[in-house]
Amino acid sequence: MEKLYKVAEAAKILGITRKTIYNHHKNGKVKLVEQDGNLKMKESDLTLLKTEVFEFYNISEAAKILGVSRWTIYYAEKQGNLKFTNINGFNKVSAEDIKRLKEIKDE
């Protein structure tokens, strides 16, 4: 049987809130199962969310990775050099865009 995690455990592992997990459940992205009166997340769904969560970075994280200011990230988006993705109401930058911009910057 697949390992199950309490929602609080999964949230801690992922570095997100329990509410975010419940929202993903409500939107059908992950399925929570009831066990012993608690809602729990399957390990496969945790892995799926982990991939999604860590493939995107907030503006500050992207700026830190690239060694630039947050405003440079906003400017790059305005110029079409990267695209913001809205995740749970927050603008995020994909790891792909960061990698591409880092390669350009390092040239």
Percentage of residues in DSSP E strands: 15-25%
How many H/I helices? Answer: 6
The poorly predicted ranges are: none
Number of E-type strands: 6
Briefly note the structural class of the backbone.
Answer: alpha+beta
Number of domains: 2
Distance between the terminal alpha carbons, to the nearest Å? 49 Å
Large-scale geometry:
elongated
CATH class of the largest domain: Mainly Alpha
What share of residues is helical? Answer: 40-55%
Biggest sheet overview: 3 strands, antiparallel
Kindly report the average pLDDT value: 87
Strand numbers in spatial order across the main sheet: 1-3-2
Rg on CA atoms, Å? 17 Å
Report the CATH architecture of the largest domain. Answer: Orthogonal Bundle
| SSE string, helices as H and strands as E | EHHEEHEHHEEH
- Would you give the CATH topology of the largest domain? Multidrug-efflux Transporter Regulator, Chain: A, Domain 2
TL;DR of this structure?
By secondary structure, this protein is an alpha+beta fold. It has helices at 7-14, 18-26, 43-54, 59-66, 70-78, 95-106, and strands at residues 4-6, 32-35, 38-42, 56-58, 84-87, 90-94.
